[in-house]
Amino acid sequence: MSEEEDEIILAELDDDELVAQMHDDLYDGLKEEIVEGTNILLGRGWTPYDVLTKALVEGMRIVGIDFRDGILFVPEVLLAANAMKSGMTILRPLLAETGAPKLGSMVIGTVKGDIHDIGKNLVGMMMEGAGFDVHDIGINTDVDGYLAAIDEHKPDILGMSALLTTTMPYMKVVIDTMIEKGIRDDHTILVGGAPLNEEFGSAIGADAYCRDAAVAVETAKEFMAKKHNQMAAG
Ligand code: B1M
User: Fold this and answer.
1) Chain-centre distance of CA 163, in angstroms?
2) Is the pTM value of this prediction over 0.90?
3) Do 118 and 84 contact (CB within 8 A), yes or no?
4) 72 Cα nearest atom in ligand 1
């Protein structure tokens, strides 16, 4: 077959085929194709949230499995991550423009030693979309970085992300330091990341572990509602 006959025209695929093709394109780190696919699905009336979860997050889940199994290596996964980010760049303003009233504020960062930021970025985007002011302090954040951001932004919520079993214990370092400084109870602390679970969240003294970005939004809203009720009760 000639190259021309081989070429896939994304716009000619139906929704299921296009989503499957986007999983393949993400796997292959094809940034332009991910941008095109994202725009096509939005043009067909898909919600930004569905594009995000069904096309991009699901694609990255597949990448994660083959990374774990030694089929993909860091350079390929980096390309996939960059392709994913190019799709997220398109979705970000759409997710943020819900016009929801401001519910509260959040500081979020990935902990020291850890450079994974896709999950954190996604949580930040969804929180913004739900009406929170989000201050993203980036990756590889040490305790001083968290404390400085807390001091500067006085957030209702502190979010911490960790993707490595070796970096997740650092969350406790941050929480313990907040306890020492007497500021722990001034903030709701939410933690997340693939290797964490609820038991770990409570063991380190976080207020809640959030399985994914949607749960983070719901949990943050619940804590804000509680806070407002307590304030109203005086
Ligand atoms: Co890395 N990596 N990685 N990696 N990587 C994992 C995490 C791993 C599980 C892969 C595997 O082996 N299966 C494994 C960790 C194993 C372990 O600790 N037990 C791993 C490893 C080993 C490594 C390196 C050590 C590899 C190496 O160098 N030999 C290295 C470490 C670098 C470092 O951080 N110091 C490394 C590097 C990388 C890349 C740079 C190549 C790239 C990151 C690019 C980037 O982020 N800019 C990368 C990637 C992409 C992954 C996988 C494949 C995908 C992560 C991701 O983006 N998922 C990952 C495999 C996996 O997780 N299954 C893997 C998509 C994202 C939407 O999901 O991040 O889970 P997630 O976020 C979710 C929830 O967890 C939750 O909500 C998000 C959205 O729904 N959530 C929160 C996350 N943070 C939250 C915070 C909250 C609330 C919810 O606060 C309130």
Assistant:
1) 11
2) yes
3) yes
4) 53
The CA 220 to ligand 1 mean position distance, Å, reads 22
| Spatial separation of the C-alpha atoms in residues 55 and 10, rounded to whole Å | 13
Predicted pLDDT at 228:
84
Residue with tokens 């850890």: 114
Q: Report the separation in Å between the CA atom of 30 and the middle of ligand 1, taken as the mean of its atom positions.
A: 19
Q: Cα separation of 61 and 54, whole Å?
A: 10
67-94: pLDDT as tens digits: 999 999 999 999 999 999 999 999 999 9
Helix 213-232 with 118-129: angle, nearest 10 deg = 50
Q: How far is CA 41 from the centre of its chain?
A: 21
- CA–CA separation, 22 and 12 (whole Å): 13
Q: How far is CA 63 from the centre of its chain?
A: 16
Answer whether 192 contacts ligand 1 (Cβ < 6 A).
Answer: yes
164 close to ligand 1 (CB < 6 Angstrom): yes
Query: Pairing mode, if any, of strands 208-210 and 157-161?
Result: unpaired
Give the chain's end-to-end CA distance (angstroms, integer): 75
